[in-house]
Amino acid sequence: MKTRIGILGYGNLGRGVECAVRQNEDMELAAVFTRRDPGKVAILTDTAGVYPVEALADWRQRIDVLVLCGGSATDLPEQTPEYARMFNVIDSFDTHANIPEHFARVDAAAREGGHVAIISVGWDPGMFSLNRLYADAVLPEGADYTFWGKGVSQGHSDALRRIAGVRDARQYTIPVERALEEVRTGRNPKLSAREKHTRECFVVLEEGADAARIEEEIKTMPNYFAEYDTTVHVISEEELLQEHSGIPHGGFVLRSGTTGWQKEHRHLIEYRLKLDSNPEFTASVLTAYARAAHRLYREGARGGRTVLDIAPAYLSPKSKEELMASLL
Amino acid sequence: MKTRIGILGYGNLGRGVECAVRQNEDMELAAVFTRRDPGKVAILTDTAGVYPVEALADWRQRIDVLVLCGGSATDLPEQTPEYARMFNVIDSFDTHANIPEHFARVDAAAREGGHVAIISVGWDPGMFSLNRLYADAVLPEGADYTFWGKGVSQGHSDALRRIAGVRDARQYTIPVERALEEVRTGRNPKLSAREKHTRECFVVLEEGADAARIEEEIKTMPNYFAEYDTTVHVISEEELLQEHSGIPHGGFVLRSGTTGWQKEHRHLIEYRLKLDSNPEFTASVLTAYARAAHRLYREGARGGRTVLDIAPAYLSPKSKEELMASLL
């Protein structure tokens, strides 16, 4: 019996979940739900249909896990509690500061509805969180570091697009190799924002826009660019489409710590992701945790969870015996 | 109430657990047990004593978790089932091929005795296994690679010492940088043993030993060296002590895989350990899982576990609320 997946929201992330489901033989796509006109949403899977979000309540018996593919700003704070009453759900809520509040609301709703809800699944929060936790627990005396990139930051790209005279833009966050190397030495450096990351901007200008004024405006924008070494490249719309249409991302979680009676030994734990497609990788993590949610539910678990609460074996389609024999 | 740790076996690993316990404020060392004369075993912790292994049964009420620090060849196959009847136990059983059988025996004993027993804890098996599992589950279409080193292989060092004319020796396993780079490109190369690792040997000879014959014997030794590019350095006993008395190790777990409807996007997951002290790092992992064992036991869990079965949050001294607010 396959795990029947529903997808709510068919943007890059929803399409990524659709692709990931096809890569997992123990899963199948049941349906995609959208707030748009379903007739105008073409999906890739020919065995599943597209339905309006209002139809979701009718699918309770036909979906094992609903994967919520909306955004953290406005969609998920509403959707995850709402649908956790009806379905086992997974979301990728990534506004770090609001996670405790979001969790509390989702947990209450999932308990009320008798379902499992796993929030903040992806790579940060998600795989990076797991690595921070494992490394912290194993090396209690040390320091840890998260670097992001090289990758496209949606928030920073949006900030560029809001500047008068900018038609389109793409911003890459780039970890500073020298800072990474310093962390790897085990000296536990204190690093400022500027020392850890640089920001590279590719902007397409409106006709007649003042390039010098725009570059100045970018480089002095507080919170987004002023605290970093920022470079600005003015390019054509054609070049932006050809060279910068991908959504790569990734980064590093490092922890360096000491052991021994005199703290005489140093250790470095480094986890790295290098992703061609940020949304597809996030979707792949969501899909693995959808498997976990379904299993937990069948075992009788109810309520909210994060990736930190879930034993790794639940993510794998392999049996415990297979895992022990082949992978442990 | 601190978790009271017992240590059975006071070699490098046992001493490492003693050091790790001191780094964790929620733990304390209750006692060390040895097969040697306890009067001749000096430990570092002045608040704990050393006792003969025969006294262990009297400590059932004074130890929450017993960490078994013997070897996988002969100690742990006997000790882990025996003591899982009396205590919550952790071991670092690392004979991969025998893990299923060892698990079955330990699981039965732990259930019989009403305890939790976590086997095969360390870094491989252990942290590397976790990373293989997470990466496999997230990128089901791909290939994974484990590289070891640079580090001292005890088994290969022992093999060198068994050669007639060799007084002492140290063997380093070294991952081939070119192979690592090829894996990182995402081309999923097929790599032979020789392509993945080189072996570097430092040997001290008995007086009058034939260096050329010994080098030949090393380089042609099947299973250990013949399948690798092996270099042999004859050095003095003094140099061996000065330059090669540490026990560094580490390695890499990589998985490269594809996502997308046409598998058009590549992703790389890389986990790396760089360890000054193999036994102390292993001990630090054992100690974090001792915390997990105690918690699981207090929650009512019984029986055998591996690292794959344990939710990450159990390893951390932090509460779920703290973890969610600070680390997720």
Kindly describe this structure.
Two copies of one chain form a homodimer. Chain A has 328 residues and is α/β, with parallel strands linked by helices. Chain A has helices spanning 12-22, 75-84, 99-113, 127-138, 154-161, 177-184, 193-196, 211-219, 237-243, 278-298, 320-326; strands at 3-8, 27-34, 49-52, 65-68, 88-90, 116-118, 142-148, 151-152, 166-175, 197-205, 229-234, 249-259, 265-275, 303-305. The two termini of chain A are 26 Å apart. The model of chain A has no long low-confidence stretch (mean pLDDT 97). Chains A and B meet through helix 1, helix 3, helix 4, strand 13 and helix 10 of A and helix 1, helix 3, helix 4, strand 13 and helix 10 of B. Strand 13 of chain A pairs antiparallel with strand 13 of chain B, so a sheet runs across the interface.
Low-confidence stretches of chain A: none
For the sheet with most strands of chain A, the description reads: 7 strands, parallel
What is the molecular shape of chain A?
Answer: globular
C-alpha Rg of chain A, in Å? Answer: 22 Å
N- to C-terminal distance of chain A: 26 Å
SS element count, helices of chain A: 11
- In spatial order, strands of the major sheet of chain A run 3-2-1-4-5-6-14
Mean pLDDT of chain A: 97
Output the structural class of chain A. alpha/beta
Strand content of chain A: 25-35%
User: For the largest interface in this structure, which chains are involved and how many residues does each contribute?
Assistant: A-B, 69 and 69 residues
